[in-house]
Amino acid sequence: MKSIKILLGDPRHNTVGAHSYFVPIGIGYIGSNLLEKFKNSKIELKLCVDPEEIFTLLDEWKPDIIGISNYIWNSNISNFICEYAKKKNPNTLCILGGPEFPAGTGARKIEDSVEDQTYTKCLEYLSERSSVDYFAYSDGEVAFVEIVRKFIENNNSLKSMKDKDEPMKGCVSLTKKKDKIHVGEYIPRIGMEGSVKNEGRDEIPSPYTTGLLDKFLNGIFVPAFETARGCPFLCTFCDQGLDQTKITTFSVKRMAEEITYVGEKLSKLKKGTKTISIFDSNWGIFEKDVRLADEILTVMEKYDWPQYIECLTPKSNWDNLIKINDKLKNRVALDLSMQSLNIEVLTDIKRRNWTAEQYLLFINENRKRGKSASSEMIIPLPNETEESYFHGIKFLMDNHVQANTYSLMMLCGAELGRDRAIKKYSMVPKFRILPKSFGEYRNKKIVEIESICVSTNTMSYQNYLNCRNYSFIVKLLGHPVFIPIDKLTKKLGIGWYDFSKRLTSVIQDENFKGKFKDLYNEFCKESHEELFNTKKEAIDFYQKPENYESLVRGDIGENLMSKYTGKGLLILEDIITTIFYVIRKIIRKDYSKELNIVLDSSEKWLKNLYLIDTIFSDSDLIKNNKNKLKINFDFPEWLQNSKLPFENFKRDSTYEFKLDHKKIDYIRNEIKSITLGGMDERRAFSRYLERRMSEHNFLKKEFEKVI
User: Fold this and answer.
1) What count of Cα atoms within 13 Å lies in the side-chain half-sphere of residue 630?
2) Any residues with CB less than 8 A from the CB of 643 and at least 6 apart, and which?
3) Element (H, E) at 95
4) Exposure b/e, 601-628, CB count within 10 A at least 16 = b
5) What is the sign, positive or negative, of the torsion defined by CA atoms of 468, 469, 470, 475?
6) What are the CA-CA distances from residue 166 to residues 68, 172, 175, 183, 286 (Å)?
7) pLDDT per residue over 34-57, tens digit each?
8) I want to staple 194 with a disulfide (CB 3.0 to 4.6 A). Which of 7, 63, 200, 590 is the partner?
9) What are the backbone dihedrals phi and psi of residue 431, each rounded to the nearest 5 degrees, phi first?
10) Contacts of 199 (CB under 8 A, 6+ apart)
């Protein structure tokens, strides 16, 4: 019997760097489950993430079945892959699956209601993707098995399957006449009949220990793990919010085996990623997560890997989080996403957050361990106003929590992406390109577009822009290079939020001049200009040759928060000048000769601290160059113990610094590797800074106190 060739793809655009470097665990589970269920059948299986590799396999390997993941960041390329496959061979069975679907993930019913036209939208969605034979709306592992089983029953003939014009379990598909859709029977998730205790997902063979994902364990891709699937919460902005299900889990033993396997593999590489990512919606919610931390620690001690653990933290059980972080030596990234601090907003979006008091307790417990915290905010959520947003930011900043603000994505599988919510809250969508999510394949330019909300009945478009523009200042000030400023303002009795607002006000003053103001105005301008009224307008714009070239160069289409933070770090001297100008304005009444010495020395030190300008200097001119920096207040020594009064430190100090030429040469080589399509060196360096955002020490000059 002829073998069945199956291609599973999780395509990631990589024209200017991949959108995601995670190991494709999703298609890994589908693949390992397929091989287990059809181990007595002749199946050839290939897994890919590179679009060019996928197209080459369609040309040369000629798969019988392709299964492609469908997320917001690859929806258009996924559809184009199916179109291309059909052109090469009309009998290729094409399957999509993922959350980017009007019915959401794991929907129990697909039908129209007065408020939401779910059935109609699913019909429209598939009609626009006529090359797609089936869309798996249930979990891919189970739906894909059903499709392959039917394919085999029909003598490996897609035509025979389609001629029967029948629903497929776990899938949605167009009828033969293409005027309606078949909605197949919902298939329960693997392990759904069990419980958390019996950990029923172990039924799926490991894609790691079976070797299926070995090609991605090359030090480039970040290993991803899913210890549990499902979410007990109903957040309306999330594409999982429509599917409140029992959480199904893998056993601790199974996960320990996987992590050990990956750790051993990566430890043999000379260099590579030191991070793992846990994809659970709420890792730390169960006691078993604490036990898994013990297993990760064992691997960590044996292989010196991983050094960093990324995860989505839960909205409850913070005791568990502290235990986990203690066990893992403070290596867990703690991003506690509040989204809003307005109770009315949280109620409306069905978000069950910790209280502000609980949040502060958690933050303070982790600060004792030297761990900082950050929080996501989303604008504009229903019932959020400009005033309530600023109130929430004030709470975070005054408690020295980094606040990262994101625009509300109107995901088609989320409750807030549906007609009922759009009408209820008078939500106005705009469209923009997803950063790094574009490419040219087989002479066709593909760009991925997202829909974001820019206005509601409680927040106008101008309110939205005001919040977003201010959030850029917050993002910039949250960079580690400004930690000394945070410590200094705190000592001076200036609240971090109040300082950020005064800084913003000064920059917005039409009479104020400087590079920082120019940068801020550029950000505001591009934040408005990157938005389009329709998805088609956005696609048409970026497909024009001249605009596409600008995308490749990085002139347009990037994450603006990261882009302008990176550009801001190129003009540190001007930003520091502006910051100290604002500090002096705030403390004008309390100004004294002694304080003037402190501020002058602090400003002088910070302006001389980083390598920024020397990156672009002639190395022959700076070779063996030694400089002495004299300051009248020992600001760097004070920083080491900033709880003490200024007067406790020696005033007159001299520091000698020299440039680290190895460091400079390394950065210059990095810039060369980034430069694409005519991108200038400073823009390339800005992109480099985006990548190394937390590694601020890498840019520091080497100082030594001599007096």
Assistant:
1) 1
2) none
3) strand 93-97
4) bbbbbbbebbbbebbeeeeeeeeeeeee
5) positive
6) 22, 10, 8, 9, 41
7) 999 998 889 999 999 999 999 999
8) 200
9) -125, 140
10) 191, 249, 250, 251, 254
Q: Which residue has the tokens 């001119």?
A: 621
- Contacts of 626 by beta carbon, 8 Å cutoff, 6+ apart: 656, 657, 658
SS3 track for 360-403: HHHHHHHHCCCCCCEEEEEECCCCCCHHHHHHHHHHHHHCCCEE
Q: Are 493 and 595 in contact (CB under 8 A)?
A: no
Q: What is the mean pLDDT of residues 534-560?
A: 95
The residue assigned the tokens 């705190």 is 490
Q: Does domain 4-183 have CATH number 3.40.30.10?
A: no
Residue spans of the domains in the chain: they are: 4-183, 602-705
User: Terminus-to-terminus CA distance in the chain, angstroms?
Assistant: 84
For residue range 453-486, what is the model confidence (pLDDT) as tens digits?
999 999 999 999 999 999 999 999 998 899 999 9
Encoding tokens for residue 65? 């079945």
Backbone angles phi, psi at 529, to 5 degrees: -75, -20
User: pTM for the full model?
Assistant: 0.92
Token pair in block for residue 644 = 């003490």
What's the one-letter identity of residue 431? F
Total residue length of the chain: 707
Residue type, 373: A
Residues in contact with 544: Cβ distance below 8 Å, sequence separation at least 6, in sequence order: none
* Contact call for residues 72 and 411 (beta carbons, < 8 A): yes
pLDDT at 583 over 90: yes
* pLDDT for the residue 683: 83
Per-residue pLDDT at 264: 95
Grouping H, G, I as helix, E, B as strand and the rest as coil, residue 447 is: strand
At residue 702, what are phi and psi to the nearest 5 degrees? -90, 110
